[in-house]
Amino acid sequence: MRLTKKERQSYLSQALEQNPFLTDEEVAKKFHVSIQTIRLDRLELGIPELRERIKHMAEKKFDHVQSLSPSEVIGEVIDLQLHKNGISLLEIGLEHVFERNQIARGHILFAQANSLAIALADWKVALTGNASIRFIRPVQLGEKCIAFATVAEAHDSRLHVGVQTKVQEEIVFQGDFEVYRVSDDRGN
Amino acid sequence: MRLTKKERQSYLSQALEQNPFLTDEEVAKKFHVSIQTIRLDRLELGIPELRERIKHMAEKKFDHVQSLSPSEVIGEVIDLQLHKNGISLLEIGLEHVFERNQIARGHILFAQANSLAIALADWKVALTGNASIRFIRPVQLGEKCIAFATVAEAHDSRLHVGVQTKVQEEIVFQGDFEVYRVSDDRGN
DNA sequence: CTCATTTTAATACCTAGTCCTAAGTGCTAG
DNA sequence: CTAGCACTTAGGACTAGGTATTAAAATGAG
């Protein structure tokens, strides 16, 4: 016997995570055991069969594509009063962090704040002009960031928005954004 | 007979595009024809079976996730002298722009500059502290952004980096980043 | 040696198909 | 009216990649 049951099962879940397209037969050969053993393993580990795995992936992708294109909205706007204030929520996931240390990349927090600031402007086309920002403490994987934006100054075609992002009452990010309006067909 | 063959086939491809998870049986009921008819239709239209459709979707998603996690590297670093200067290239694609007007979202340019600034620091863990930035002109879909970063000040654990992003000699973005070092196990 | 765990085997069944042959339906042109 | 054609439906055989169940081996530990 090569591996113990536990070892095999741990390798199995790894392998399927890395390549979900493997059939039971293929992994069975890899581990030099019978198909049935692999199936028992999957059963115990609660890993669904190939087709279900694939289906779930496809469903996720489908949801994703339907709901938000990757860069379109970072964070979920949960409250918004145009030209006044807004709140956006973002849970830091694996796709947001440095692999090495599980700390959220700066531009993710920036993107959340920036998106919110732009959403505050009730203009067809709004862009960011200047911004000055401060990353106060690193944000870890899994933390929920709540960005609070308030309009400090409002002009015809310019908005000054202050954004504070907190994790559990603790400020982690602060930024001032100057958002300006574009006259539709390109402008500025 | 409800629909002609052509009509049915056109609705069929539409329906499957909109919801690729439909089985032949389900659409057969929808169109009040037999399963065989639907299968003939798919054959003629070159539409693969449910499982293949789903698999292809999953594969696409998989490729995506494998190649670049959306936030990991924004822009391609083409030149880098640690603690001195660096250059990064980014071609604005569909995934970077507002749908409405094909202008690159601010945080994309920020992300490119931020990634480059952090790459300049030869530290295991480097994070952005403060930054002040200026979006000088909107960047359109398809434009190639070249970010030039130079270190203005270098201390033990802090780096001041200036970044200028240009599209064909024209400055579109400017930022000053303060990058700081973290003593490995979390720190700061 | 014996007992429990682990592994393998064998069988029936499932879904969502493919591929193939055959037969039925509806309409049109001679 | 009927032969011919396009279209539709039906049926059977086979497929992959399983589930679920039962049963028999193999193996290791006490």
Give a description of the structure.
The structure is a homodimer of 188-residue chains. Chain A has 188 residues and is of the alpha+beta class. Chain A has two domains: 5-66, Orthogonal Bundle (Arc Repressor Mutant, subunit A); 76-181, Thiol Ester Dehydrase, Chain A, CATH 3.10.129.10. The first copy, chain A, is 35% helix and 30% strand. The first copy, chain A, has helices at residues 5-18, 24-31, 35-45, 50-67, 106-120; strands spanning 76-81, 85-91, 126-135, 144-154, 158-167, 170-181. Chain A has a six-stranded antiparallel sheet with strand order 1-2-4-5-6-3, covered by helices on one side. In chain A, helix 2 packs across helix 3. Residues 64-72 of chain A have low confidence and may be disordered. At the A-B interface, helix 4, helix 5 and strand 3 of A face helix 4, helix 5 and strand 3 of B. The structure holds a DNA duplex (30 and 30 nucleotides).
Low-confidence stretches of chain A: 64-72
Query: What is the overall pLDDT average of chain A?
Result: 86
Tally of contiguous helical segments of chain A: 5
Radius of gyration of chain A: 23 Å
In total, the number of strands of chain A is: 6
**What's the oligomerization state?**
homodimer
> Beta-strand percentage of chain A?
25-35%
CATH architectural grouping of the largest domain in chain A: Roll
Indicate the overall shape of chain A. elongated
Give the end-to-end Cα distance of chain A, rounded to a whole number of Å. 72 Å
In percent, how helical is the residue content of chain A?
Answer: 25-40%
Look at the helices and sheets of chain A and give the structural class: alpha+beta
Counting structural domains of chain A, the number is: 2
